[in-house]
Amino acid sequence: MKKMGVAEERKAEVLRKLKELGESIYYALQNRKFPEIYLPSRSVKNIMYDQELRQYVLGPAKVRRSSHNIKQIRTFTQLIWLAFFVKRLIKERKTSTLRDIFYSAQAFNIDFKDQDESDKIITDLESALMKAREDFNVFPEERSAIFGELIIEYTVPGYEGKRLDLTSHPDGVMIGPALTTAEFIDTSAEMVIAIEKGGLFTRFIEEKVHKRFKAILVNTAGQPPRSTRYLLRRLNQELGLPVYIFTDADPWGMHIAMVIISGSANAAHLRDLTTPDAKWAGVWASDINKYRLPHDKLTDIDIKRLHELKMDPRYNSKLWRDEIEIFLRHKKKAEQEAFARYGLTYIVDKYLPEKLEIVKSL
Amino acid sequence: MKKMGVAEERKAEVLRKLKELGESIYYALQNRKFPEIYLPSRSVKNIMYDQELRQYVLGPAKVRRSSHNIKQIRTFTQLIWLAFFVKRLIKERKTSTLRDIFYSAQAFNIDFKDQDESDKIITDLESALMKAREDFNVFPEERSAIFGELIIEYTVPGYEGKRLDLTSHPDGVMIGPALTTAEFIDTSAEMVIAIEKGGLFTRFIEEKVHKRFKAILVNTAGQPPRSTRYLLRRLNQELGLPVYIFTDADPWGMHIAMVIISGSANAAHLRDLTTPDAKWAGVWASDINKYRLPHDKLTDIDIKRLHELKMDPRYNSKLWRDEIEIFLRHKKKAEQEAFARYGLTYIVDKYLPEKLEIVKSL
User: Fold this and answer.
1) CATH architecture of B188-360
2) What CATH code would you report for B6-136?
3) Which residue among B175, B202, B335 places its CB closest to the CB of A176?
4) N or C: which end of chain A has fewer CB within 10 A?
5) Which residues of chain A form CATH 3.40.1360.10?
6) Which part of chain B is CATH 1.10.10.10?
7) Active-site annotation of B, residues
8) Residues in chain A closer than 8 A to B96 (CB atoms)
9) Which CATH architecture has domain A144-360?
């Protein structure tokens, strides 16, 4: 028998958890009890930072959803319907979006007054199963991209066993449901470089960063969708590749890197989306002066955001604290593209090797 | 000698036009005259709708940029620098973004006070050459995607002569500089279906619309970037394939279809971005009642927009006028995903074949 791949194993685990959930409902009914479900509480009081996991996690507080409680029967029913619906999605190997779920409910006379309500129930099911919605085939619309010497093998219907070399399309290979669930077969890469901006991702491909630095390139397209964060983690953990993150030099770019490394409070009920060993490789606040980069003044909103980050336990280490201080002292920000001031290839020829040297020694 | 492909021919033409521009400057200098350039005026008075081309075009009015005029010497210099810079981009076969151009200027001590100013000069050069910035290797960051039975051959450095089958990645193949400049080699497709939303694009791939309807699928990702509009035109004109556009049933979805068909006033100085024979295949206002779709009320902004569209010469034909009237009468809008109310595959199994039948006969 063929060994089960990572993607298949995850699906099997979700199905197992869904089955347990269903069985608990049947068991209650058989024993003439009102079925109920316990979910981890997602209230602010129950969200805490775990130093060991280096991410936010939920504490021990639980909330009960009971079919006995007239106020809860609506959300209880919605949750059970959703569990039924995503089980069918997985079995039929179809994918879906948050928006689709909202409309699909109407076919079953399940009432959601708007998408906010259905999105909330999807998060409830995530908490109940401790699995991300991507694991039950609910994907976002946004797509980021990947490029580099990595061969993958698909597991989606119609493509099982087919392979793709991720250098086969020089605009980058889209990260959608098929790529997210593919198995990694072979790579000659020695690192992963995640890049915030599409323009720079294209530049890196043109300048052959994948060959010169033996790197797999990932375009996060701003704050990466969770499927991209999950993919970065897999590249790090399954292939043992270090991950370096390049963003703009501003609080928002910094935070893109931090969410890849340590996750978000919103996803405290989930595991496997963070890459704790990934490194923020710039553009740092200190690079703006060091490289005399064209820059803009920080806005009031930027400064307010930096003060928030200062209070955030994820930012409680030397590099991050120092860079926040430099931002606040100089009140400057700069974009990745600012290096074009020294010619389009400077960032690859000069900045990238210098910075990788520094970051590796951190 | 190998026959020149469409993409290569376009590059050669841009280089020829850049050379003419340069020669006119040298000629003036040699004759001890102040160099000057004439550009078509892009003022509202000079933008008119051309019934034959079925797009907005610029009228005969010209504006002069002269190095003799102290007020114009700044923009004149910026324009000449840009022409020099993009010639180098093309020769070195590098691509760039609007943002890159802004920063690159600083390496040459060319001053742009912000990106708005550099963007304006890029549009000036487009008008001077009557070519889109993509033709001189300045690409946007946004990426849409394509999927279907079409084999392309790359022309970008390092990939010359390599081919890709556009069914090779089931998440869709990204439309970036490499795809935009590729040659079409072979297809078994009989139509092109452009889709506004990423989620539905993935659904269409999963439901094998490319096989069942022999269709090439294009995800426009909202209002498509110009390189995607140009690609749709090429699929229509080079391969002779009809193009059908599926959008949300609201004024914004309608206008996505219209811009693919007839272009925008902003691009009145350009050709080759429109597909006049493409058809808007829904979701129509009339479909909301016909299919009893879940819907929302039109907002005041939606209604204001519909009144604007009514006055727009591009909307001056029966289908469009009727649908605008129905929107205004029923005051309802609906999304493509609303069909999920009848199950996730209803849109492909029922709506799509019915609608294609109707649209083909229009």
Assistant:
1) 3-Layer(aba) Sandwich (3.40)
2) 1.10.10.10
3) B202
4) N
5) 144-360
6) 6-136
7) 103
8) 199, 344
9) 3-Layer(aba) Sandwich (3.40)
Q: Of A143, A173, A220, A288, which to mutate for an interface test with B (greatest number of B Cβ within 10 Å)?
A: A143
Substitution target from A171, A296, A342 for chain B, most B beta carbons within 10 A: A171
Percent of chain A whose predicted confidence (pLDDT) is above 90:
77
Residues of chain B with CATH 3.40.1360.10: 188-360
CB contact under 8 A, B95 and A294: no
Asked if B206's CB is within 8 angstroms of A341's CB, the reply is: no
What's the pTM? 0.89
The C-alpha atoms of residue A193 and residue A216 are separated, in whole angstroms, by 6
Q: What is the pLDDT of residues A30-54, one digit of tens each?
A: 999 999 999 999 988 999 998 888 8
Q: What is the CATH number of domain A6-139?
A: 1.10.10.10
| Token reading at A172 | 């980058």
What is the b/e burial string over A169-207, where b = at least 16 CB atoms within 10 angstroms of the residue's CB? bbbbbbbbbbbbbbbbeebebebbbbbbbbbbbbbbbbb
State how far residue A329 is from chain B, nearest Cα, in angstroms: 24
pLDDT attached to residue B185: 96
Indicate whether A6 pLDDT > 80.
no
Q: Do B341 and A198 touch (CB under 8 A)?
A: no
